[in-house]
Specification:
This protein is mainly alpha-helical. It contains three helices and no strands.
């Protein structure tokens, strides 16, 4: 009898303090686990939402293209400044990408 009371209290405490987080974790009760043939595979309990379906791929790629082009230009400028400093110190670096 004591054990059943303790288990019942433990379950209530766990359920009370545990919070389901969509796409991350889910607290399944024993009946649901039984219904899934005792499988604990997360995909049986946690629904995955495919956010990629709503992305405007062309727009996203153009944005990334612009950002990457700016980064490459900045890198090229930095490379030239660094080569200039090394040359002034007498240690020229002959490197072309």
């Amino acid at each position: 009898m004591k054990r059943n009371i303790r288990n019942s209290l433990t379950r209530k405490l766990i359920i009370h303090h545990y919070k389901d987080v969509p796409e991350y974790c889910y607290s399944a009760d024993i009946e649901e686990v039984r219904k899934n043939d005792y499988s604990l595979v997360p995909s049986k309990y946690i629904e995955f939402i495919n956010r990629d379906e709503n992305i405007d791929f062309d727009n996203k790629m153009k944005t990334l293209q612009t950002e990457l082009s700016a980064l490459f230009a900045e890198q090229s400028k930095s490379d030239e400044q660094l080569k200039k400093v090394f040359k002034e110190l007498g240690y020229a670096i002959n490197y072309e990408l």
